[in-house]
């Protein structure tokens, strides 16, 4: 196009306008970060051009004119959990049903992301270091806990201990989890992973969502566990800093 090779606020602004016509403007900012990373060794001032007022205003305008609303999944409610637990699929393997219920309640009460309990659906992207280990599980008379080895805010695998306490409600997570562990240990006593399907493999997010959508519409998804648990805690008066 005859532009100057050296990146300037003008060329970045034109780039934003061009790309926003084809992709979500929220992704353009990420593209610019990648461009700056690649060009910084040759053009040391590239980040100053990226952060110029002109480029910022162009990005803001692209979001207003071309932006797409974020489609958030609905939060699970105790009524949803109650409906799922009391109406299990009759044609499914017992271990898979017990696993699904254990993951559903653990994710809800532990505010876990679905990806923290499942394997990546693409085999080449599976990272065994992120799997929760059976050996980390500790069970008491009123709770169970395990080590979450990593999450997306913990890149150095320092881990976090997740504690799930028994409740007096009919959607108590404690007993369904113990039921699953009994089945799992009977079938796969030498496997190291905590969550295992009837085939002895770590469930994928697709595996979990397929069963979730047998009970609920697609407006619910993996984010519904964490969002539902946080919303439920807020509804019973849990302080915001405790939820965080």
What does this structure look like?
The chain is mainly alpha-helical. It folds into two domains: 9-66; 78-242, Orthogonal Bundle (hpI Integrase, Chain A), CATH 1.10.443.10. It has helices at 9-20, 25-39, 46-50, 53-66, 78-86, 94-110, 174-187, 205-212, 223-235, 240-243; strands at residues 138-139, 143-148, 160-165. Strands 1-2-3 form a three-stranded antiparallel β-sheet, with helices on one face. The termini are far apart. It comes from Coprinellus micaceus. Keywords: DNA recombination.
Beta content comes to: 5-15%
The number of E-state strands comes to 3
CATH class division of the largest domain: Mainly Alpha
Rounded mean pLDDT is 91
What's the main sheet like?
3 strands, antiparallel
Strand order of the largest sheet: 1-2-3
List keywords for this structure.
single chain, 244 residues, mainly alpha, hpI Integrase, Chain A, 2 domains, 3-stranded antiparallel sheet, 10 helices, 6% strand, elongated, DNA binding, DNA_brk_join_enz
Explain the layout of strands and helices:
Blueprint: H1 9-20, H2 25-39, H3 46-50, H4 53-66, H5 78-86, H6 94-110, E1 138-139, E2 143-148, E3 160-165, H7 174-187, H8 205-212, H9 223-235, H10 240-243
Antiparallel strand pairs: 1-2, 2-3
Helix pairs in contact: 1-2, 1-4, 2-4, 6-7, 6-9
Summarize the structure.
This protein has 244 residues and is mainly alpha-helical. It has helices at residues 9-20, 25-39, 46-50, 53-66, 78-86, 94-110, 174-187, 205-212, 223-235, 240-243; strands spanning 138-139, 143-148, 160-165.
